[in-house]
Amino acid sequence: MAGTAGSGSSPLSAGGDGDDSLYPIAVLIDELRNEDVQLRLNSIKKLSTIALALGVERTRTELLPFLTDTIYDEDEVLLALAEQLGNFTGLVGGPDFAHCLLDSVRLLAVEACVSIAQLLSQDDVEVLVMPTLRQAAEDKSWRVRYMVADKFSELQKAVGPKITLNDLIPAFQNLLKDCEAEVRAAAAHKVKELCENLPSEDRETIIMNQILPYIKELVSDTNQHVKTALASVIMGLSTILGKENTIEHLLPLFLAQLKDECPEVRLNIISNLDCVNEVIGIRQLSQSLLPAIVELAEDAKWRVRLAIIEYMPLLAGQLGMEFFDEKLNSLCMAWLVDHVYAIREAATNNLMKLVQKFGTEWAQNTIVPKVLVMANDPNYLHRMTTLFCINALSEACGREITTKQMLPIVLKMAGDQVANVRFNVAKSLQKIGPLLDTDALQGEVKLVLQKLGQDEDMDVKYFAQEAISVLALA
């Protein structure tokens, strides 16, 4: 609740200066003490209006003490107040009076500390800002500690390297092992930024001795949000620490995260493999992390498999064609017959991206023959996947491969017993038609579509007639 300070504590109590033009400001000030939280929030958002009306001296001597004495409040109101005071420097008379603001909010003035510290000398920051920040980092309210963690990068830049090393690093260590998961997660998110912003000459030593031991603890944290937050940034440390440290100290952590029970943790590691590859090279990466990736590619949870598929073109580019064919090609083909449609669909799109990356000769020798064999699969879903692959691959493979290798298979499948396959034949012919020469279109393609246009199944008939229209074969 807002405090109930007496009327004498208000900056405009009893209209002391007799200025009726300040009456609206008096109303706003009264609302700061209203029982209604929303009214208090609205008034706080207009604090700059109140300060401008009062002038810099009365803002310093009346408004700020009034706020300090009156508002003992919910976190939401205190947060809004801290945000406002962060922009208040000019309203109290400029940087020379900035220290007044730190006395005006309880321990939730972290945001204000960032703004104020940027204006002060290092000595003034140490004397005027750091006591508030030290208290905030150890505050009994987890929301206060959370805010310190959330604003850590800004704080680090605002206070400078010396204070960072002496004060912020120990505070950060405490935040990384905070009893509240929300605080640990917020701090974990800032690990990479903190490390990047350290002085280059001491960076590696500080990280290895003062940050990494805490990161190792977080890898096995009991809370999945904490582990996910860390996994989203930890790979970036490899570029900061270099090859030797990455192989010795970070790879074991990455491997543990790749095997984490939480899918989001594994996902975050996979999606950032490229920055590790840049540091340690593909052979080392494949020996250490590839087995875990293969394991994920066959995971029981389809969303995990889907995530791996989506990163396969990226992996392919990193591994190179020969290595990819040796280690991962069979996985890509296996996904085409997955029991989950979303996996089969993603696997089809994946093949198209791989052909774009490795070229048509690779497609002709490695992919297309395996895809076309599926046209004879007993499972009609797998036969349909052949058509979906042809749709996706035709443009990337070009006219010759499409005409010579793919078209005969599509035409043959027009006689399939399953209507779903037949109408997908019509759709495939419409898709690949623009790539075919006139003879093929006016010959076999037209005959097959005309036959499908007389099919007993309404859907087959509809899609065949649509293809005839689109390809102008009527």
Automatic annotation (TrEMBL):
InterPro entries hit by this protein? ARM-like, ARM-type_fold, HEAT, HEAT_type_2, PP2A/SF3B1-like_HEAT, PP2A_Regulatory_Subunit_A, TOG
**HEAT repeat positions:** 24-62, 129-167, 168-205, 211-249, 250-288, 289-327, 406-444
Bilayer-crossing regions: none
**Start and end of every TOG domain?**
118-349
Q: SUPFAM superfamilies per the record? A: ARM repeat
**To which protein family does this belong?**
Belongs to the phosphatase 2A regulatory subunit A family.
Protein name per Swiss-Prot or TrEMBL: Protein phosphatase 2 scaffold subunit Abeta
Q: Which organism is it from?
A: Cavia porcellus (Guinea pig)
Q: What is the lineage of its organism?
A: Eukaryota, Metazoa, Chordata, Craniata, Vertebrata
Q: Which gene encodes it?
A: PPP2R1B
